Description:
disordered N terminus; 16 helices; 35% helix; disordered C terminus; alpha/beta; globular; 6-stranded parallel β-sheet; 7-stranded mixed β-sheet; single chain
Amino acid sequence: MSSIDRSREVGVTRSYEIRTYGCQMNVHDSERLAGLLEDAGYVRAPEGADGDADVVVFNTCAVRENADNRLYGNLGRLAPKKTQRPGMQIAVGGCLAQKDRDTIVKKAPWVDVVFGTHNIGKLPVLLERARVQEEAQVEIAESLEAFPSTLPTRRESAYAAWVSISVGCNNTCTFCIVPALRGKEKDRRPGDILAEVETLVGEGVCEITLLGQNVNAYGSDIGDREAFGKLLRACGAIDGLERVRFTSPHPRDFTDDVIAAMAETPNVMPQLHMPLQSGSDTVLKAMRRSYRQERYLGIIEKVRAAIPHAAITTDIIVGFPGETEEDFEQTLHVVREARFAQAFTFQYSKRPGTPAAEMDDQIPKEVVQARYERLVALQEEISWEENKKQVGRTLELMVAEGEGRKDGATHRLSGRAPDNRLVHFTKPDQDVRPGDVVTVEVTYAAPHHLLAEGPVLDVRRTRAGDAWEKRTTEAAARPAGVMLGLPKIGVPEPLPVAAASGCGCD
């Protein structure tokens, strides 16, 4: 009899907490880790746990220079809690685990399990093995064992869902270590993707985001260069699916058929996240990006011609090795020309294991900081100007959960427009649930959000709202398990869309 069976027999349930770092891929992986643990009999710890759970899982990111320092600092803070809490286990997974492997256990010998990006499905087995053998289990698969979407998933949202269409990446950008840790691109069969989408819609989900490290390269693994556009059109034929988004594409693979599919498929939203990284052809070449400024701006022009109200966002790295003032001015030029709704901007930092980390002419920190501040100021000005163009427009918003931090104090609710802009609106008299759709008129614009201060023009209750209400009611009625060890005080807040799409490395 397993420990899980024994715990059920005596009425004891083990709790878990997952801490997630990095991109949307990691956020979705954490949903799968939660699903695996709950399928194995664990329960999610209450809000605010901060390490007071029977199992604490770190789903790590290796993109930032100080990612390992952050991990080991957090592990160090858990060491005394583990000493005080018999039976507590700590697991480390994700990209940093794939990269550092045995180093983690050497630096933090109180860690019980280390697993990689290719074998997240093994977590419950590894936890049990570590408990029985009373020693750390380190298992890093070198290639994908099973496509992650076949695993149980505990989705954070009842009305919106990630759907992976591929894993891995075939690019060799000099600043990015992700391909070395996630492996070569592996595509899912279109029928499997559409079957998952249809299942989700049947459960009440009305918005899906197609997810991949390089999402519009989909089809390279199955020999069809137009597969992504076909997939978007196929999603348009699914009854009940109201909104389709995707992240993150790569300019190299962005083809006219994808633009046509976006424009001609009503439920594909007028939103595009297109990583730029740099506006300088010289820097793009050093980054090993396979497009140049003219190609990038040409894509933006075509998208705007086909979808006039599209909101385009991007990623930009400032201070890449060798970047001159002239190179940086080229980035500012592209920002002015493209007029992004929002830009996720990063100061370049060495990413261990990448070619760029060994390049000559690393830019002084103070120069990078000054350029970064100039870029942010320009983009803030453009974002505000573009948002002001929304004032007076009537928009359909999907009501969101947890997006408006001040909603309680302002008596507002928040929702996402079709182009993914965040809109705070006056709370109507009638009941409105996350997943429902409201119609509002925009009255005010700020750089990062819009306001609809007048009365709500229409409320449409949806199956997605029904799904949210059902989940919330069931969660409230579910009896709390008797936990092992010390009392728990919760888990991290549900993660929103990650601040940077695709680790900032697409």
